[in-house]
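Z., the sequence and structure:
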Amino acid sequence: MTPFILGRRGGSNWFLRILGIRPRKRIDKSKIIEALIVKIDSALNQIRDNIIRLKLRYKGLIERAIKTLLSGGRVKALIYLNEAAEVKKIVKKLGVSEKALEQVKLRLETLESVTDVPQVLGEISGVLLATRDYIKDVMPNIALSLDSLVSEAKRVISETTDVGIGEEEGVYITEDAKKLLKEIENAVEESVSKQLPEIPMSLVTPLLSKGVEVKIKDAGKEQQVKRPKRPVRKLSPEEIDRKVMEYILTHGGFIDVSEVASQLNVDKSEIMASLHRLKEQNKIIF
């Protein structure tokens, strides 16, 4: 009689199937990491596309608000300004989410050993959950993408360890995750404030009554302004006035003539002429 040798007909796996036991499926952890990074990149692209779109939206709202304020439409201008403030909040939340996902991606990319995969997935899942809760009220579609990533992390942890993880257990928002998100939020707040300057409401009322008091910085009328090399588009006086007023309002009543001339690719004399036009219209005081 031929003795039974473990290994024939599938070896131990064949024997376990006879006993009704399903063997644990082997998982290529390096491929898991690659797949997760691909999904994170997809979520990042989604976030970045929304940031670009909303920044353009913010700029358009501010321009409309300035144009309306210059024509005396206070109520409509305030509607534009309030909407711009809401858009800015969403941009900030998206910015925080972007930086958090970049941290998660970096952690996966710098993973030293695939044996650490379950532990690392547990760590990053906490960050993903915190990010999901942070953004779900303004971008539910992105929150769903983060939910999908967390579910994938749970599945992998279950299949690579002896820990069974249910739908509502296994990963948590840790104190470290909360701390990381807070640090990112502070950094993004400063960055967004510089990129999307607001118009202080304290300047709106003076603009519509006696005019905004302006402090002018001028490097000297004889000094030539260095302008960027780009196609020159002749701006109308109305466009220049609007841009000058936007600069003044978003810089707290201050204007650097040389800087604005460089930004608009015009001579300083045109900026000074705009300031005098605005003064004659009782929009500004200097």
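The first helix runs from residue 11 to 18. The CA atoms of residues 27 and 160 lie 7 Å apart.

Let me know what you think.
H.
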